[in-house]
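Contributing new records

If you add data, match the layout below exactly. Sequence lines come first and carry their own label; structure lines follow with theirs. Keep one chain per record. Anything else will be rejected by the validation script.
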Amino acid sequence: MDGFDDREEEAADTVFRDTIMLALAGFVTVVMIVLAHVRPEAQASASQEAASMPGSVMIEAHWDGVLDADVDLWVQGPGDVPVGYSNKGGGLFNLLRDDLGKQMDLSGENYEVSYSRGLMDGEYTVNLHLYRNRSTVQAIPVKVVASVKRGPNKVSKQILVSDTEMDREGQERTVFRFKLDQDGALDQDSVTTLFRPLRSGSKT
């Protein structure tokens, strides 16, 4: 009787070992399949893509995060309508972020950004509008950056940077106007700050 119990126990041990080995083999197989599909170059490519700008032309406006001021970025591309907080999308540009200053903002940063879905040759206009200033300073310093993604590798490059001040609520100011050719190259002779209103009802 004892011999029968020993055989039964030995058979149970064998089944248990076989089950464990099969489970381990299945786990190793799954890990190998997953590793075969996660290549370092693919990871690097994904991170580079995430770090690159989303559009062909990107316009950014940054001001001090401690200031409770609502500065609006307005952009107009060639043949397009002005794009800003009250019209967030046009044929070419989209306003990606509308910053209201301290209102509903836990990021600690103040910035707005617009980007284009493609590249067109012609004139681009970039304006700022001081919608509201609840801070303790009268003049709000704002840095505006224009970048273009071009070339065979679609590398983004800053083409214009401007530091300006917005002095009073309702003021609209043209930070720069510039022309790009069909390849996205900047025409240096086209750069100007000649005012062109993009937001109706603004004060210069």
